[in-house]
Amino acid sequence: MTNTKYQLIIVLFALLFVGASALFTRRLSKQFAEVEKQRMAVWAEATRQLVLADENTDISLSSSIIEANTTIPVYMTDADYHVILTRNVQEPKSDVEAFYAKKIAQLRADQTPIEVNVSPDVKQYIFYEESNLLRQLRLFPWVQMAVVLSFMALLVTYIITSYRNDQNRVWVGLTKETAHQLGTPISSLNAWLELLRAKYPDDDLLPDIATDINRLQLVAERFSRIGSTPTLVTMDMRQTIEESFAYMRTRVSDKVQMTLTVDEQDDDSAFLIHGDAPLMKWVTENLIKNAVDAMDGHGQITLHLQRDGQLIVLDVTDTGRGIERKRYTQVFRPGYTTKTRGWGLGLSLCKRIVEQYHGGKIFIQRSVVGKGTTFRVILKQCAN
User: Fold this and answer.
1) Where are the domains of the chain?
2) Which of 69, 92, 197, 270 has its CA 20 to 30 A from that of 75?
3) Is 283 exposed, middle or buried (0-12, 13-18, 19+ CB in 10 A)?
4) Are 259 and 302 in contact (CB under 8 A)?
């Protein structure tokens, strides 16, 4: 595949991602805009009550409502559209009248003002602009696009240079830079999410945004671990496999039957290894995703965890297309894929994590074309 085709794939993927994000953000923005419109209606009524109040009227509630608006720019005009009051508006140092005339003309073209009947003979209008919070929300999909393009650009860099440079150096440089590049936009997304939570704590769309951000953080963490020598600690391989299985089970089609079996052992240390849990979860998820792809979205996947002496063995079996014996080693090479869409890095990442970082082995234990494949992962067991 040529570099031009790779670039086209990236552009199409980015457009798809940003399009979906834009639709979601547009829906959320409409809800926020409706909330601001309702707030302005209440604000207008409070203003009218304040104008009509006499010395015996309690104006504390109306004043509180008016003072509570600290984010939405508001313009109040007379019947001839001359500005008589503003709030949260930064005036220019010169040509103030021209500034307001131009602003009111723009707002009249974009919105229907809120009418305030001060008296039968006196009519005023209220115009308002979007708050800074709503403007930032509309920028949300573009921030996501920056994240995706940064990630895709780094992957393309790897694919183009892998044929000219030492593979290990490319891997380390790619992963470190990916984690670094993702860090800044993820931090921005987290800050915006906290702002949204503070302003609209009861909005039921915020958990979905938080889930996506957490997933991006997990991707960045995994790549940072690939780019650096991981610190291996004592971990329970059984718990890691069970957590990965539970995560993938909810994200795989109901047409795929998934089962996990673990051989019972007499002691709690039976499945302990010196390893990196997040990376081993990545291995398990990649093997399950690979199995789903091999079955075209329907079939059966079986995970079997067992002890063989001082070795821990994980088998991931699918009922998919199978692999020819001559391709047993090719599937672990970077860039190898049988899919029309895909980077061919999943199994290569698995091999690097298992063999270079954990001193284990990963290979195709058996495969029959048209019937299915079993990938086997072997790791050394430790006492505790």
Assistant:
1) 3-24+134-226, 28-131, 233-380
2) 197
3) buried
4) yes
H helix or E strand, kind and range, residue 48: helix 3-52
- Which pair of tokens denotes residue 362? 């990963």
Question: 83, 78, 80, 76: which is closest to 128 by C-alpha?
Answer: 76
Tokens, residue 209: 């945004």
List, in sequence order, the alpha helices (H) in 257-377: 277-294, 346-351
Residues 327-348 as b/e (b if ≥16 CB within 10 A, e otherwise) read eeeebbbbeebeeeeebbbbbb
CA 339 to chain CA mean position, Å: 24
The token duo for 133 is 């919070």
Residue (of 315, 241, 316) closest to 271 by Cα position: 241
Q: With left for phi above 0 and alpha for psi between -120 and 50, is residue 342 left, alpha or beta?
A: left
> CA 213 → CA 201, 224, 274, distances in Å?
17, 17, 29
How many whole angstroms from its chain centre is CA 332? 28
Residue 280 amino acid letter: M
Question: Which CATH code fits 233-380?
Answer: 3.30.565.10
Asked whether 362 and 348 are in contact (CB, 8 A), the reply is no
The predicted-structure confidence for 163-196, as pLDDT tens digits, reads as follows 554 555 555 555 565 665 676 677 788 788 888 8
Please state, for a pLDDT cut of 90, what percent of the chain lies above it. Answer: 21
- Pairing, β 361-368 against β 299-308: unpaired
Q: Is the pTM of this model over 0.85?
A: no
